[in-house]
Each structure stands twice: as structure tokens, then as C-alpha cells.
Amino acid sequence: MLHLLQKPLEAAQPSRRTFLKVSAGTIGGLVLAMNLPRSAASAAEGDFLQPFVHIRPDNTVVVLSKHLDKGQGTASGLATLVADELDAAHDQVRVEFAPSNPQLYANTLFGVQGTGGSTAMANSFMQYRQAGAAAKAMIVAAAAKDWGVPASEITVSDGVVSHGSGKSATLGDLAGLAAGEEVPAEPVLKTPDQWVYIGKSFPRLDVKNKTVGAPNTYTMDFQRDGLLVATVARAPRFGGKVKSFDASEARKVPGVVNVLELPNGVAVVAESTWPAIKGRSLLEIEWDDSGAETRSSDAMIAELKEMTAQPGVKVREDGDVDAVLEASAKVIEADYDFPFLAHGAMEPLDIAMMFDGETAELWFGSQIQTIDHNVAATVLGIPFQNVRINTLWAGGSFGRRAQADAHPVVEIAMLAKAMQADGMEPAPVKIVWTREDDMAGGYYRPMSAHRIRVGLDADNNVTAFKYNIAAKSIVKGTAFEAMLMKDGVDHNMTEGAHDTSYALGLMNMDQTFQETQVPVLWWRSVGHTHTAYVMETMIDRLAKEAGKDPVAYRLEMIRDDPRKANVLKLAADKAGWDQPPGDGRYRGVAVHKSFGSYVAEVAEISFRDDGTVKVEKVTAAVDCGTPINPDNIVAQVEGGIGYGLGAILRNQVTLVDGVVEETNFDTYEPLRMSDMPEVEVHIVASNEPPTGIGEPGTPPIGPAVANAIAAAKGDWITSLPLSKAGLV
Q1: Which domains does the chain have, with CATH numbers?
Q2: What is the chain's alpha carbon radius of gyration, rounded to the nearest angstrom?
Q3: Is residue 292's pLDDT more than 60?
Q4: Is the CB of residue 399 less than 8 Å from the CB of residue 524?
Q5: Burial readout 99-110 (b: 16 or more C-beta within 10 A, e: otherwise)
Q6: What is the mean pLDDT of residues 654-658?
Q7: Which stretch of DSSP H or E encloses residue 136?
Q8: CA distance 343 to 368
Q9: What pLDDT band is residue 177 in, cutting at 50, 70 and 90?
Q10: Is the pLDDT of residue 23 over 60?
């Protein structure tokens, strides 16, 4: 068995070298650790033998994905990189998730092991290619010695190693022999013209298991002998606490094993899911709401709007914008507001744990393994090395699993300790969140308000752009604050606006933070989901003031960003922007950069007889650097468009006296099949390093649709969702 592992590249330590170490538990095996100093070899034994690539005796190539795959195709992308450099056959490659090990598997853009911000390919492109290339070099060297031929005469293709003399072997045949080979310090990588898989479309490796419903693919269907299932009754108002409870009726439900109080609620532990849910419904709980959020959404948004009228934390300050606005010939003003949004992933939160008092093992879709691992060890009071995290596939996330507080881990660790304290025998337990738990459980995209003032001169040229935004900060007061906030600024709120490439004269931007018990979190595309809407609808308004075509105006306003201009031109060309859309059809356009990628979208709409809007077609152009799997890129852009469209049409989470109104998909409606437009995606050919694709398709769809509505009606929608304006 050939084991290959690679420590994340560290530009600050160019002197790092490679070393070879044979795994004590692997006969005839090889462990390759990249970018570790040779002096670390002895320390690495037992700690750093976590592979990126396994080549097994049965000739299966297993790629260890350090990133969670929650539907974005990351695991298949990483496998593609290894397979190409290794010259493995596509059908011999499998994917498994790497264990939690921040020293080996850190996301080099984060500094911890974790997935998010569409960074997987950007972080791992070179890393996984080097792992595959190093494996191939060692296989070839071993074959050359065994066959007595020059290594330069050996070829590897489709998983077969061969020589002109007629000698040949599989990768699995040679794995053991490669154990004695020197690890190449700098393995030779293929040039783009030599790629076999990169840049071509192949079926994702996860499709079969998901299609046939393979066991233990997701945490929701995870099973183990003796597994108990728990549900937790949590306060209906955020910040509420248990004052008292009566569990007598819950305990009578057949299958209920125990009822235990936790710091955040009351847990019903049962032999299976249904009695846990039934027992929970029979709990009688009195809640203490003295520290809870009791306001309704209207009051909260009113507060946010008041905040935007006042100075806040300076995010960008080019100069005396107020003076320039005062001297401008005209000032355009607009106020926007956006609601809380739930993530609404197909699989609600769930997590399983086995704790025996000294060691703990967890199974779930862990998105930031380092935080989850540390939190589990801390809450349980055991050493870090006594915790094992098994990452499973996640049925969606959209940011929901990337929690700074790791609250599912905290909850199940508290439950395990409570079970132990109550004298229960150690047993694996899984906490299941119902759809209602997940929808009403918070961690939403923040509610926000935006106030814009734009100055124009006598020729309608922009002289100044003043932008005030108010929302609850995602990172303020969390474990991410030290890393993601500088000088008190949370760029998660303002990304896509403060860093715009439009020429807007002097630009100042302030942000103000709302204080509320409602927990907020990253939502697909994060701040870009509202800043893109604001910026792109404002650009359309300014184009109208200037009497110019929206595409032409954008091209005039874009400064020093040719890739942005290029995707805009491509989308407009493919959509036939220069030709009338046809009777009863209207078009709108938006272009936005997020997570290093550029996406332009042209939305074509019509109106039904009842006046509601129907998005007929979306033409998208995307530049995400080197395309690894074009089919997956298209799928992600299509999905991002559908996800963003559903949000702007009718999605919102509202509170009445602090209690969430929308608790399932009947009131928080997902995009319907009848809502989904025809989508056409065009990928820009590029040799640039790969950038994100899981999120960038979402931000442009909202403003593109809004601009199409404005083309029809003359006014821009500034308060979402569109259902509030009677358009849905």
C-alpha cells in the first residue's frame, strides 16, 4: 500500500524538505510526507502519517480530501488533480475524507483545517498535483530498478506502468517496491498541454453512492450498533433559558431512554428518532426570556435604518465625500433592506458521538475540523489526541456548518457528559435536528440596511459615492474576530462594495453593528449577496441617469479589471444583448467578482397575467481561472443561480415578538421547478490559478432580475424579497 501525504505549502519556509518514513502498521508500505523537515521524521511517526493518497494492493487509488464536500464537487476535483499527475485510470480512483489533523491538512488560506469561502481548489490545486506527481515519480523509479531499465524509458498511462521491452505492471503492483525510493523534493508537474483529466468533464465520484443511497453516506442515515438518538428542546426565543420543566409524560413514550437538561435546553434520548421527537413534544417547559431577543423584525429593521443615517466604523474613506456631494449638481439617494435568510440545506444539522469517558469519536459533516476538534476536547475535558473526527458527506451547507462556536459539537459533548453523569452506560448517540429545528434555530444571513448617496456633475458623471451599511457582524465577538476583523472593520459585511472596481469618484463607506441575540452566520456568498444587489442596481440607475446602455456604461466604469469586463462582454454577447428580447420580454444585467471569480449574468424576464414575474432565461459567463471540471463548474453556476433566485423571489425569516414565523418549507418556500429558468453557462478559457466556484454564481442573479424589472417598470426594488412588492 502506497501512502502519500503532503503538509500544506508554506511560502515563509522555503527551506523545508521532504522525508521518507515507513508506516509501522503497513507491510511493504510507503509514507511520503511533503514539505516536512527531515528533522521532523521521528516526531512525525504516529502523528503525521495521515495520507493524501493511498495506492492499495487491489490497484485502487484513494484520494484523501482534506475539504468537506457538501455538494460543491470538491472531493472529485481533488481526485482529478491527483489522478492526472499520477496518470491513474479514472475508474480506479476513489475519495475518502481525511482525518482531523491541522498540521497535515490545514487550509493554507485559513491556517486551520476547514472548508469555506470557495477556497478548496485555490488552496489545494498545487498541493494535490504535487502529491500525485511525487507518487508517480516514486513508482517509476521503483519499476526502473526492478526491471533494470532507465526510468526515462518508462511510461505511465491509464494506471498502467510500462516499458518498451514489454514489461508492465499496475500502480498497485509497484506500490510496495516504491517504499525504498527517495521522495522527490520538487516533483515534476505536467504542463497544461499534457493534462488528461484537468479541464475536461467527468462524472463526480460521489454520484453513485448518493444515487443508490449507500449506508452512512450522510450523518442523517449514520447507524451503529447500540446507537441512541436524541432531540433537544431549545428556547423559542434566541437567548432564552430553561427555567423549569416536567418530563413525566415524555418518559412514558415507548423507546424513550432518558430526559436530561443541557445548558441550552432539554434533551430527550431514545432508541430511535420517532420516540425522541414524540417525547420532546410532550415536555412541559417554562422558559426564562429575561435575556432573550423579544423584538419583531419590523422593529429590528427600523433600528438598522436609523443606524445607516449615522456615522459608523470607517471601512473606506477616500476624502471629504460630504463636501463633494454638497457641491454636486445632483444627488441620487436610495435605501435598501434585506431580511434574515435561512440556509435551508437539504440535510438539517445532525451529529453523532461515542464517548467512553476517556476518548471520543464523532461522525458528521464537519466543515471546520480544527475548531470542531478543539471544542470537543475542551468541553469533554480530554486531550486533543483523544478525539477523533470522522467527516461524512454533507447534504448541503451554504455556510450553515461553518460555525465559529461549533454549537452542534458543544451540544452533543454536553449531552454525552450529562449521560455519563446520570449513570448511563457509554453508548453512541446522535442528535438530530428536525427541519423546524434547523429553520427556526438561527444562524441566518444577517438582516441588513444600506443607505446610498451618489453625487453627479452636470454631465451625469459620478463625483462621489457614500455608502452606509448596518447589520449584525458575523465575526465580532467570535473566535474568528482576531483573524477576520482589523481596526474594528468586518469586511464580511462590505465585500463586493468597498473593493469595487467601478470608478465612482470619491467613495466613503461606513458600517454599524446591530446587537441582537439572533445568531448569524455566513450564507452562500456572504456579504456579496446584498452588496452585489446594491452596487449593480445602483450602476443601472446611474446608467439611466446618464442615458446610456447598461452594458456599455459598466464597461466605461470598470477600471483596471479586464477579466470583469471580459465576462460582461461574453455574457452580453451570448445573450444577444444588442438584439431586442422579443415582445413581452425584458432583460437585466449584473456582473460581480467574488471569491476570486468573475460572473456576469443576463436575466430575461416576462410577466404573467396576474402581474407576477417569471424569469425565463439566464445567460451566464464565468471566469474562475483554470477550469478543472467544466461540467461541475456549470452545475455550480446553475445551482448558485437557482439558490439566489429562490432567495430574492420569496425567502425571508421574520420574527414576531422574538419568535421565528417560518419553520418549514411551506412558509419558507424553496425555488419551485416552475420558477427555474433556462440557464446557459459559458466558461472563459484561462491559465490563471483556479478560484472559487461554489458561491460566485449567486450574487449577480438578484440584481440582474431587479434590473430587468426596472427595464420594464422604471423602478428598482430596494426591499427584498420580491413577494413584498407583489411580483411573486
Answers
A1: 35-211 (3.30.365.10), 219-291+349-432 (3.30.365.10), 297-341+443-725 (3.30.365.10)
A2: 27
A3: yes
A4: yes
A5: bbbbebbbbbeb
A6: 98
A7: helix 120-147
A8: 17
A9: confident
A10: no
Determine the pLDDT at residue 663: 97
The dihedrals phi and psi of 425, each to the nearest 5 degrees, come to: -65, 145
CA-to-CA dists, residue 690 to 14, 334, 417, 564, 566, angstroms: 23, 36, 44, 16, 17
Say yes or no to pLDDT of 48 above 60.
no
**Distance spanning both ends of the chain, measured CA to CA:** 58
CA distances in angstroms from 490 to 134, 316, 388, listed in the order given:
41, 12, 33
pLDDT band, very low/low/confident/very high, at 175 (cuts 50, 70, 90): confident
Q: What DSSP character marks residue 725? A: G
Cβ atoms within 10 Å, residue 614: 14
The alpha carbon torsion through 5, 10, 13, 18 (nearest 10 deg) reads 10
**In 10 A of CB 303, how many CB atoms?**
17
Smallest Cα–Cα separation from 624: which of 687, 575, 701, 562? 687
- The one-letter code for the residue type at 394 is A
DSSP helix, strand, coil percent of the chain (3-state; round to 5): 30, 25, 40
For position 213, what pLDDT does the model report?
A: 86
Q: Identify the helix (H) or strand (E) that includes residue 266.
A: strand 265-270
User: Taking phi first (over 0 means left), then psi (-120 to 50 degrees means alpha), and beta for anything else, what does residue 726 get?
Assistant: left
Beta carbons within 10 angstroms of residue 188's beta carbon: 12
pLDDT in tens, 426-457: 999 999 999 999 999 999 999 999 999 999 99
Closest CA to 521 of 283, 321, 267, 238: 238
DSSP 668-701: SPPPPGGGPPEEEEEEPP--SPP---SSTTSTTH
2-6 and 53-55 beta bridge pairing: antiparallel
The identity of residue 715, as a single letter, is D
The three cell numbers locating residue 618: 439566464
251 burial level (CB within 10 Å; 0-12, 13-18, 19+): middle
Angle at 159 between CA 158 and CA 161, to 5 degrees: 105
List beta partners, residue 354: 361
> What is the Cα–Cα distance from 254 to 260, expressed in whole angstroms?
17
Tell me the three cell numbers of residue 384: 486533543
Contact 304, 447 (CB under 8 A): yes
Residue for cell digits 501512502? 3
Residue 84 in contact with residue 129, Cβ under 8 Å? yes
CA 699 vs. chain centroid, Å, equals 14
